[in-house]
Amino acid sequence: MNLILIKTGVNMFAVIRNGVTVGTIQREKINRKHMWHATGINGSQGIFQSKRTAAEWLAREAG
């Protein structure tokens, strides 16, 4: 699996798996903590502590 992150804005990245966009991740402050909010192209959403975990989750969800 080839996973690429492309910066699309301030604290926002597009996640590309094998040449196909699977979603975006963006950094948000939730309860005074910085977290990563992942949104897939199918509408699935998740909150993660690390950018890598969020990107891997999106790649699995697009499965």
SSE order in H/E notation? EEEEEH
How many structural domains can be distinguished in the coordinates? 1
Shape from CA axes?
Answer: globular
Any low-confidence stretches, pLDDT <50, length ≥5? none
Mean pLDDT: 93
Largest sheet: 5 strands, antiparallel
* Global structural class: alpha+beta
Overall description:
The chain has about 60 residues and is α+β, with helices and mostly antiparallel strands. The protein has one domain (about 1-60). The chain has one helix at about 50-60; strands at about 5-10, 10-15, 20-30, 35-40, 45-50. A hairpin with a 4-residue loop joins strand 4 (about 35-40) and strand 5. The longest helix has 12 residues, at about 50-60.
Name the descriptors:
single chain, 63 residues, alpha+beta, 5-stranded antiparallel beta sheet, 1 helix, 5 strands
What is the compact description of this entry?
The chain is of the alpha+beta class and 63 residues long. It has one domain (1-60).
Helix/strand layout:
Layout: E1 3-9, E2 12-17, E3 20-30, E4 33-40, E5 45-48, H1 51-62
Antiparallel strand pairs: 1-2, 2-3, 3-4, 4-5
